Amino acid sequence: MRRKDPFALEIQSPVVVGTGLIALDVVIDVDADHHPWLWTGGTCGNLMAILSYLGWKTFPVCRLNGDDASQLVEKDLIRWGVHLDFAKLSPGSRTPIVVQRIVKTRSGLPSHRFSWTCPNCGSWLPGYQPVLASAARRIASQIRGPKVFFMDRVSGAALILAKTFIERGALVFFEPSGFGATHLFKEAYGIAHIVKYSHERAKSFHGAVEGKGPLLEIETLGDEGLRYRNRICSVLSDGWKCLDACEVAELRDAAGAGDWCSAGIIHRLAYRGLRGFLQANDSQVKDALRFGQALAAWNCAYAGARGGMYAVDKKTFRLQVQGIISKDGSKVPRQEVPNAVVRKTFECICPRCAPAPTNKQK
């Protein structure tokens, strides 16, 4: 029997709304004299771009204020078809900037490090500021028919949106970046239908949550794969099940792998909202998790959290992912970028180290 196309959607352009970290990623390959890549990043930002790439109608909810970094983020999101109707809520806030350096370990394997300080002047770069609760209440009624609501940071606004969309039949996907405010975290964990987190992040909140838990709980384990608990059907076991990671043909950078995995799970399990999700059996859940793992493995062949989207066309992307699913193992070509210097990049986007204006006449 022929396997169904994992990219196919039975519903045209399902809607997903997301709030959380939407940042400008500055990706620097320290072993090459390349101009840094300037791409939209952050878990929520990546997820909105990836799901739009997969055929969803995506609406990020954030506070882009028109600064240089936000203009780069907006341009990039528009390129991938993301809708910015609710991306410039007031009061505006400086766009978070995250520096990612691709390095090699002593054994020669690629790795990455994140930094939140400017490499030019050493000052802290802008950080995350949540949407205000008043803004969330104002826009909640304006978004029609979302199938999924995604959040990676807990806030009063995120919970307002989550509760509103649950009443309209949406599935809530929560991917905590950390513990945050205890009462907000517990409430978000309690209402979410899917909760996904990495083994490293789990240490910050394990033991602090109570109750039965979400319908689907996923813990990623890096190159060891993931484990999950499926509580959709009460007759199913409440114990953990494991899935090995997909083989990575050529590891260049693992940043963003978790975001691709989340997008794949949502794409396969949540396009019909909560009602469709509740009808999923364990085999369908496993297939969705495997699809997410295949997307994550594909992404590891490229620099940055979404580097592959800029390097190959969509047809090639689909063929390569299908090859991973079928254990083809074919290698993915590396991308080329123009040469430049890191310093000039940060003179344009860092609020504190832009060159001072001069009075010289042209």
Instruction: Specify the CATH homologous superfamily.
Output: Ribokinase
Strand order of the largest sheet: 4-1-7-8-9-10-11-12
Helix/strand order: EEEHEHEEHEHEHEHEEEHHHHHH
Assembly category: single chain
The low-confidence parts are: 328-339
| Rg calc | 20 Å
Topology:
Blueprint (H helix, E strand, L loop, with lengths): L14 E5 L3 E7 L7 E5 L1 H11 L3 E5 L6 H12 L17 E8 L5 E6 L17 H8 L7 E4 L4 H12 L3 E4 L7 H10 L2 E5 H4 L13 E5 L5 E5 L10 E3 L13 H13 L3 H6 L3 H18 L7 H5 L2 H12 L16 H8 L13
Parallel strand pairs: 1-4, 1-7, 2-5, 7-8, 8-9, 9-10
Antiparallel strand pairs: 2-3, 5-6, 10-11, 11-12
Helix pairs in contact: 1-7, 3-4, 4-5, 7-9, 9-11
Q: How would you sum up this structure, described in words?
A:
The chain is an alpha/beta fold and 362 residues long. The protein contains twelve helices and twelve strands. It has an eight-stranded mixed sheet with strand order 4-1-7-8-9-10-11-12, sandwiched between helices. The protein is globular, with a radius of gyration of 20 Å.
Keywords:
eight-stranded mixed beta sheet; globular; UDP-N-acetylmuramoyl-L-alanine:D-glutamate ligase; 362 residues; 33% helix
Concise account of the structure shown:
This protein has a single domain, classed as 3-Layer(aba) Sandwich (UDP-N-acetylmuramoyl-L-alanine:D-glutamate ligase), CATH 3.40.1190.20. Helix content is 33%, strand content 17%. It contains 12 helices and 12 strands.
